[in-house]
Amino acid sequence: MAKRVSIIIAVWNQLSYTKLTIDHILKNTPADLFELIIVDNGSKPDVKAYVESLKDKVDTVYIRNDENLGPIRAINQGIKASALDYVAVIHNDVLVLEPGWLGKIIAVMDADPAIGIAGLAGRQEIYKTGCVNEDSLKHNLQNEDLNAPMEEEVSRVAVVDGLFFMMSRRFLDKAGILDEAYGYMHCYDLDISLASIRNGFKNVAVKVEAMHLGNGGMTRKTRDYKMLVKDDYALLKRNCRILAHKWRDILPLKVG
User: Fold this and answer.
1) Phi first, then psi: what are they for 13, rounded to 5°?
2) Count of domains in the chain?
3) DSSP β-ladder status, 164-168 and 115-119
4) Residue 45 sits in which domain range?
């Protein structure tokens, strides 16, 4: 089978989480279905050594930055390095627990060319402020503090969650890469979701058993991140304003 998906993982140290994420991918995904694109944002040498050890198990592309460019710019580097049918982005603290998960998502997207982006989680409503309605979350994440897992196999959503999302080449050819106006992080997943809709596509959440460790990301809890981003909440508020202004002709948006 020809490879179909480039899976991009942006990493900044935290090797133990990255190993868990990749171990679960390797365990539950045929190696001939995908390639890994690891974008290293200036990590310690142990990350590069680990990536080198993967090359006997799966096709791996390693891109190293001398400094931390942030996840948005790193993901864009990965997108530019991919030439496959689909490009997927996964946080380095997400564990995919379901065998055959990637094939399931490919089948969903192959069956409906109108799908621009598929995710493991998404919200069906986003307000004019750029904030999402958390009660409209659709997911099958094994986290106790989230709402009930979705019962349907595929659910239409307004915006996907950045913990994992897979974009079709058809969509990327129209929309291009992530918008780097958001700086280090926050809201880029909402932005690319709205770009999907603007370009005539739709977004879905697919019922796949997974877990996002820490429910919100482990990097943001580290001392290094707090030194790099002095006020994470202020950055979030800034980016919500950017998002709300950019997409003011689409927002508010509710689907499903």
Assistant:
1) 60, -140
2) 1
3) antiparallel
4) 5-254
